[in-house]
Amino acid sequence: MKFAIVVGKFYEDLAERLVAGAQGVFNGNADVFEVPGAFELPLAAQYLAETGRYAGVACLGAVIRGETDHYDYVCAEAARGIMKVSLKTGIPCAFGVLTVENMDQALARTGGGKRDQGAHAAEAVITLAKLKQQL
Fold first, then answer.
1. Annotated binding residue 6
2. 10 annotated to bind ligand
3. Which sites bind 5-amino-6-(D-ribitylamino)uracil (predicted)?
4. pLDDT for the residue numbered 135
5. Which residues constitute the domain of residue 29?
6. pLDDT tens figures, 79-126
7. CATH of the domain at 13
8. 120 catalytic, yes or no?
9. Any known ligand binding at 53?
10. pTM, 2 dp
11. Active-site choice (2, 53, 70, 80)
């Protein structure tokens, strides 16, 4: 099975850490595609899912709360959009987007002590792709 990773690069250092975590689970068997940020992940995931080349797509990125409501909108629409792509295409698309209060929380969730969100998203994609294959 071949997989895709689409990553929002708004926080480039976090994006690299998330991709490294996912690639570790995918054993390098994933193509990586970049978009500007988390809001663009759903459309990119749809493009990738519709190619028929990938058994699943890990959608990675980070949204850190700021002083405005922007955080709430981006988080909600990214999550909703990624789920819609999975349901529309039947291709598993995992929500590997950090939705955190600060950079310390983000670093902890990208290989810094807490569960690695990139790896977790890759594990979810593989699990669902295998389930689909079994049916």
1. no
2. yes
3. 10, 38-40, 62-64, 95
4. 93
5. 3-134
6. 999 999 999 999 999 999 999 999 999 999 998 777 899 999 999 999
7. 3.40.50.960
8. no
9. no
10. 0.96
11. 70
